Input
Amino acid sequence: MLLTILSMLGTVAFAQWGEEELSDKPDWKERIFTGGGFGASFGSYYDYVSVSPLIGYRITQKLAGGLQVQYRYTNYKQYSPKISTNDFGVSPFLRFSLFGPIFLHAEYEYLNYQYVGAGGEKFRQGFNSFMAGGGFFQPLGRRAGFYALALYNFSYREGNATTYSPYNSPLVLRVGITAGF
Output
């Protein structure tokens, strides 16, 4: 159970973006921020690794937009022979700083998801999700910080015998330590 919770939360890192002030007339280089995420989980039923770099642009002092790409690898050990899947995704996002460490976040996600059917065969399907919510960002120095983000997936559909969903809930939680570059 603990491994499942840790794999859902992951050790994800977002770009450094918070309350730091832009200069009066910032050039485009000062407005760009980079970062990303990494998650991993290893257990007796499956291993999971996720990499999700991002690049963003501070449009104004409080509004930023960007693009995050993601790759996820899962190795299912309960099948014989073992089965692995690869997922690819892209997520343009907007983030608005409300006040202090509190921000709003909205993103569209396209996920090309590979999953294992009941007979052990692999299938691939594209999923579109619109997610929005809010978060908290606490700087830990100039290039690092802690964040917590809760999003609601407005496009969530519960999977059943004839359809599949890459999410098991409409609520998406992300927490971690930032790593600005």
Notes: The mean pLDDT is 80.
